């Protein structure tokens, strides 16, 4: 029988299989890369949470050195994400205050809950007293405490750490799905320091 090359090609289905394989290969690769990327991100997040927890536990103690703890936190995160940028925001408030609430009035002459200016309390025509408040974040105004004073405070103070980590993705998945080659995570914790000594009183200011 004579060999007919064109008929053989027409009947050959191997090429179709290669095309089909190529069609599913690309999405399959993206899917595998995506799964690995999600796993890596979960790992970095879990290491970050652990590192933040270790740091906040360390700062509850007397004589805690925040800078040593923060250096260790950065090192822990960079062990799993070497390219990581670690942004640390620390703040503290007096135990009688809390994050997200308005600074407490310590003197409210007319009991209206508002920080009022000087009034004449003894009727001599001279304004002599005004309302006062605990300036927890020491910024000179009565405000809602968001970050607190930029330190870990002292005994019995409440410390808040917010750590933002930005790092390179494990795989260049952004080339397929868009977005940045870097990704990130954020962790925040609040702890109260141990009452190892008398608490330092926050600055009291009076409205001028
Ligand atoms: Ca008042
Ligand atoms: Ca007066
Ligand atoms: Ca303030």
Automatic annotation (TrEMBL):
A Pfam family: TadE
The protein's name: TadE-like protein
Listed transmembrane segments: 21-43
TadE-like domain boundaries: 15-53
Keywords: Membrane, Transmembrane, Transmembrane helix
């Amino acid at each position: 029988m004579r060999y007919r090359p064109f008929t053989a090609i027409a009947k050959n289905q191997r090429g179709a299989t290669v095309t089909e394989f190529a069609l599913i290969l690309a999405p399959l690769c993206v899917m595998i890369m995506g799964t690995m990327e999600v796993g890596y991100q979960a790992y970095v997040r879990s290491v970050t949470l652990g590192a933040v927890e270790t740091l906040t536990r360390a700062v509850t103690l007397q004589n805690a050195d925040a800078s040593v703890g923060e250096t260790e936190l950065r090192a822990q995160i960079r062990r799993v994400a070497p390219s990581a940028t670690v942004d640390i925001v620390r703040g503290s408030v007096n135990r009688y205050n809390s994050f997200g609430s308005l600074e407490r009035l310590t003197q409210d002459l007319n009991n209206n809950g508002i920080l009022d200016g000087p009034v004449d309390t003894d009727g001599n025509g001279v304004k002599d007293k005004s309302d006062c408040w605990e300036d927890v974040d020491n910024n000179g105004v009565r405000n809602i405490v968001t970050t607190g004073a930029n330190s870990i405070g002292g005994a019995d103070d409440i410390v808040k750490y917010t750590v933002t980590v930005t790092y390179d993705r494990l795989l260049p998945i952004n080339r397929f799905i868009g977005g940045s080659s870097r990704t990130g995570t954020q962790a925040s914790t609040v702890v109260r320091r141990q009452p190892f000594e008398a608490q330092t009183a926050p600055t009291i200011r009076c409205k001028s």
